[in-house]
Give the backbone structure.
Amino acid sequence: MAATIDSDAESVESFSGSDDSDRELMEAYKSGLLKPGLNIELPAPRQPINNVAGLKQKLADFRQDLDWLERLDITTDPAPMPAAMAEVANIEAAKGTTGRDLDVHNDFQREMTFYRQAQAAVISALPRLQKLGVPTTRPEDYFAEMAKSDVHMKKVRERLLSKQQGLERAEKVRKVREMRKYGKQVQQEVLLKRQREKKELIKSVKEYRKGKIDNLDFLDDEGPLRKGQPTGKKGQPTGKKGGANRNSYKQKKFGFGGQKKRSKWNTEESSADMSGFKSGKKPKGPPGKKGQKGKQPRPGKNRRQKMKGGKRR
């Protein structure tokens, strides 16, 4: 019973607190402190602190009075610009466009300024180092320690080698692809050539049937001999391939025409000709050169069996 009374009291207090906050908001809105819209409570602006004494004290705390050789700090103006850049700067100054020198977003001008600053620092620092006896050049027999370990460099070499092998493999694949493409092109050209030759042969056969061609020479590689076509020696057509060699070969093989019957019969002259006669007598002695023993003939089967039987006994 007591717990229910406490909970009712808490709900009444929260309700009254919300009513108070609503009344405060309404009064602030009526007075003009609040404007219509989303109202967000902003933190108070932070006031900048310029503690010069504290800064100087901290600077004195971490400042160390060391020699210049330990610090190696140089404060100089940038080195003079090169002649070409100076000429361009003069032209821009004459045109009234010198504002470009102050452009911090110009990468070239910014990097060139850094380069000139470093150049001026080196020029002013080298004489001081030489005066103090500090060497400024590396000896010829000086070997510096590698910044990277041998294991890392081995990995780098392996990676470069694998990349090179990949490039070589890709180049080989490209060459093979080109060769296949070229082979297909050559094959297509051969097929087109055969088709053209077939069309020309069919056309020549049709012209021969119509009587436009005198002979059947178009069956050879020279092509058909048409009426009125200029001819060479012995009536051969004049073309790229010489037909005289083919005709001479045919004439040598088949003759020059004429009667072919009884060409191999014996005549009185062929019977009296003994130049091709060979005697049937065999030379005496074993084969081979004179004074040398030739190879002995192989004994017969019975003799070989007897020889084997004698050895067994």
